[in-house]
Amino acid sequence: MKTNSPLTTPINRRNFLRLAALVGTSAAASILLGGCSSEQSFSPQDATQNDANSDSATQAEQNSPSGSQTLIAVFSWSGNTLQVAEHIHELVQGDFFRIEPATPYTDNYNELLDIAQQEQNDDTRPTLSSTIENWDNYSTIYLGYPIWWYDAPQIIKTFLDTYPLSGKTLIPFCTSGGSSIDQTLPSIESLASGASIATGITLDGDSVESQLDQVDSWLGDLGLR
Questions:
Q1: Which of 186, 124, 151, 118 is nearest to 41 (CA)?
Q2: How high is the pLDDT of residue 193?
Q3: Burial level of 214, CB count in 10 A (0-12/13-18/19+)?
């Protein structure tokens, strides 16, 4: 991550958020990032809502200079994990990629609940809708996802199967309605052979916007902000 002298850095959108993070002003970030919808874990007591307004134009978005060594990759069905990913994107320099299935998931929560469980039971690997160019350029990958049935969604496992992670640093983050990212780590670790996996973070899917300051602190603790 590049750093600049505070005396010479222009106050652009990225630097404004960096400053807001330093003073703990999560409201400044929420103004720039907009609202969120509900995304929680799939478990008997938890629920999710559909991200009907998810902006597909952000898929495979490349926002940083060519040759960047950082990638923020995210799968988000309802939009909350996407909001966390966008916040991270504002705080670190990197490219942005939407992980999406070639065949979109249903908008109906009850149907999706059954599909997600069946995919997990069958250890399915949904096909990705697009691929990442210049994968070898990236040494650090932020990987975001909701927790479904106490685990990472199967499409995340497709992603991990598709791209070699040996020698790279993987930084997981997720949203959930009650589960912890720790429950997903056995799957992540088994599919990310040779990668260094950093300490992840879990945010409540019902209150992502109010918890973005936790992301700032998390990145600071990891020495990444």
A1: 151
A2: 93
A3: middle
Of 37, 46, 68, 39, the residue nearest 142 (C-alpha): 68
Burial class (CB in 10 A: 0-12, 13-18, 19+), 201: buried
| Rounded-to-integer distance, Cα 206 and Cα 211, Å | 10
Residue with token string 């691929």: 131
Task: Report yes or no: 44 and 210 within 8 Å, Cβ to Cβ.
Answer: no
Specify the length of the chain in residues: 225
How many helices and strands (H and E) does the chain possess?
7, 6
Spatial distance between the Cα atoms of 16 and 91, rounded to a whole number of angstroms: 10
DSSP secondary structure letters along 5-37? -TTT----HHHHHHHHHHTT-HHHHHHHH----
Q: Token pair for residue 119?
A: 């995919």
Q: Which of 46, 93, 47, 37 is nearest to 68 (CA)?
A: 93
Q: Per-residue pLDDT tens for 186-217?
A: 999 999 999 999 999 999 998 999 999 999 99
Dig out the tokens for 217 from the structure: 């602190």
pLDDT at position 123 over 90: yes
Q: In 3-state terms, what secondary structure has residue 224?
A: coil
Query: CA-CA distances (angstroms) from residue 2 to 15, 65, 76, 224, 225?
Result: 12, 12, 28, 10, 10
